[in-house]
Amino acid sequence: MGIAVLTMKASVIEMFLVLLVTGIHSNKEMTKKIKRPKFTVPQINCDVRAGKIINPEFIVKCPAGCQDPRYHVYGTDVYASYSSVCGAAVHSGVLDNSGGKILVRKVAGQSGYKGSYSNGVQSLSLPRWRESFVVSEGKPQKGVTYPISLTYSSSKSPAAKAGETTKAYQSPSAPGTTAQPVPLMQVLGTTAVEGTHTTLPKPPPSAGSTTSSLRPQPVGQRSQELDFWSTTTYTNSQNTPTNPGIQGQDSGAAFQKPGGFVPKTELSTQSLEPVSQGDPSCKVDLSFLIDGSASIGKRRFRIQKQFLADVAQALDIGPAGPLMGVVQYGDNPVTQFNLKTHMNSRDLKTAIEKITQRGGLSNVGRAISFVTQNFFSKSNGNRGSAPNVAVVMVDGWPTDKVEEASRFARESGINIFFITMEGASENEKQYVLEPNFANKAVCRTNGFYSFSVQNWFSLHKTVQPLVKRICDTDRLACSKTCLNSADIGFIIDGSSSVGTGNFRTVLQFVANLSKEFEISDTDTRIGAVQYTYEQRLEFGFDVYSTKPDVLNAIKRVGYWSGGTSTGAAINYALEQLFKKSKPNKRKLMILITDGRSYDDVRIPAMVARHEGVITYAIGVAWAAQDELEVIATHPARDHAFFVDEFDNLYKVVPKVIQNICTEFNSQPRN
Question: What does the alpha-carbon distance between residue 329 and residue 617 come to, in Å, rounded to a whole number?
């Protein structure tokens, strides 16, 4: 019996040991499952900004295509949280344009963010921002647990929009080793920031708002309704408190924009997108004429394109600043893109990169003529109020002549710059068709408009000097203005009723008007006719090309004396003076008389208008007001003037100049 009991005990012990081993094995398997959970990486779109995600540290997967410039990035290495997360990853070099996993970690806001071009992405500068982030490879750090879903600053997250399930972020059980969530208001920020006010784009109008319309508010003033989601206070240059989240709009619920739903909290940063409007201190309309001839070669053509891209970046292109177009020439010129095609430096640089070489000869003169006649037009984006500048790039020397084409360009108000690369050596000068071609082409031969580059590899050194000169609008001497773009013919009454003393007063009036203009053979030119019953050409437009010479010629005009045939004098001036006017000049006739004409003035005045002559009629003493209005260009109130005595003629000078310039500025520049 004892043996049986012992056997039973052994069986029980054996069974217990089996159960124990089985349990331990099961616990090990369960432990394995608990310790090694499968980690699911959240996916986001290219347009998701770091500031919309509350999690302080997380791993996400970016799709392909985030190198696109529409996904804006602010900063270098450390990025403002208003940046595209995936765009910043591409800029930093952690990802390429094919996408992938990244690790994102939030850090403190910076006092400034510097833009840069890296890995195909141009990041922008930003004065300051309340929160930043850094990006690294998407490898989990040992001992840190990352969220399997992201917590967004609104219940309507991008994931929910795409039909995904978004879970609330929960702190993992391992204390001290896990990225902790940051309170919502801490992420949104409470720091007061002072800075100068920047004009920023308005958000698109609401299509789906149910609580309020987005009414514009004056810049620099508070909105009538404050969005409690936005706690950051900005101060503008007038120390007026503003709320960046609602500047230019009322607060309200989330609204619809092209491309999808915008969370309510995004309203707090929607209008802060710092889009450059261009440098207003450099408002010019610029055409680059690039050399696409076969002799330049592919390598130097690429260097030339890089130079253009560098200039575009340095200029800060925008509608309130410089605009830039490109014409490529070879045998024949062609516009690659005009002034209004690209309105910022980033788009412009992308377009420059796509330019392909055309080949052929180096017909620079033909290209300059093309630009003068076609490029600077209103339909191509010419603004009229901005100086016209053409920068001509030449490899070696042109294969045609440039002098006449350049003269016409200058007379049309175009400031021509020349950049000559690897000019002709002494042995090569025999092949140059037009010696000293650059000086014959540029606006002025004072060295301001010319660059001579010894070799293509040093071309980059010209970027900053060129930009500085282009933007120095006060020195752009060839810009077409009301004071440098006319042929002005004075028609002077020398009849007996005027008298010698009063005639000298009239000549002084003519001189005072002439002093106001920029006089040269390519700027404003002056001519004069004196009349009685007969007519006499005192000097034509092509006789005197400097202001001192013109003023001396006026002083030397002798008093004639006789009758008053104003109609015949107008016909004479049209034939002997204005027929020799240049086609690109405004033709101005300024007629001074002291009495009624003995002959008809109606038909001659009509002929003058038909021939494009703008007539100003100045009457003194006994001049007939109704006749002055017939002679003057319509409207007569702007072109006909009367004074009761000769000594008051000087009072008319400012008004005549003002009306000439007002009329000029209301017309197309070319």
Answer: 47
